[in-house]
Write a structure and sequence with these properties.
Chain lengths: 114, 116
């Protein structure tokens, strides 16, 4: 158990809909990262938050957005869903100090868009 | 731009034999390198990292990795493979943003299959 929690585990929804994925980082970790894993694209970085502020953006679509709340949990919002958005979405957290640059991943949310 | 390559889609090893999963990287500056393992329908588990220091890094579950700067490689190794090591292995490099915390850039993954 990494200490990172994600809900829900599975999500099935229709095209055009909007969903919210939730992540709670490990206790004490200020950084939260969101990644998408799909068969054709592999593991792709979407976005990073650090202590409530957006820190870096990767291959995140404009239809997707995220935020990190004062209690450090984060939410990833996916809207106007398309079939191609079906993927496994991971959240990871990190303390971010040089001695602990590793990221710890949650179990993921499997999104299926029908 | 930073990148990671895992040249083998799959590695097959007999139980008890040594295993190697290959990884090469391309970064500007000092690399921060990681190995993760993913079991079916599970998240990624951190195995080990190289930040600085000894070129041979020891990690979880008996895995180790050898950092080779001249060959820009960071191969994952284990002296004696177990059937339970069968999984998907990812090499990653930390993206560099001038000192701020960086996301991980992953290779495509290598499927390790250990047969009894």
């Amino acid at each position: 158990d990494s200490g990172v929690t994600q809900t829900p585990k599975h999500l099935i929804t229709a095209t055009g809909q909007r969903v919210t994925l939730r992540c709670s980082p490990r206790s004490g970790d200020l950084s939260v990262y969101w990644y998408q894993q799909s068969l054709d694209q592999g593991l792709q970085f979407l976005i990073q938050y650090y202590n409530g502020e957006e820190r870096a953006k990767g291959n995140i679509l404009e239809r997707f957005s995220a935020q990190q709340f004062p209690d450090l949990h984060s939410e990833l919002n996916l809207s106007s869903l398309e079939l191609g958005d079906s993927a496994l979405y991971f959240c990871a957290s990190s303390a971010g100090t040089p001695s602990s640059y590793e990221q710890y991943f949650g179990p993921g949310t499997r999104l299926t868009v029908t | 731009a930073q990148s990671v390559a895992q040249p083998e889609d799959q590695v097959n090893v007999a139980e008890g034999n040594p295993l190697t999963v290959k990884c090469t990287y391309s970064v500007s500056g000092n690399p921060y390198l990681f190995w993760y393992v993913q079991y079916p329908n599970r998240g990624l588990q951190f195995l080990l990292k190289y930040i600085t220091g000894d070129n041979l890094v020891k990690g979880s579950y008996g895995f180790e990795a050898e950092f080779n700067k001249s060959q820009t490689s960071f191969h994952l190794k284990k002296p004696s493979a177990l059937v339970s090591d069968s999984a998907l292995y990812f090499c990653a490099v930390r993206a560099y943003y001038g000192g701020s915390q960086g996301n991980l850039i992953f290779g495509k993954g290598t499927k390790l299959s250990v047969k009894p």
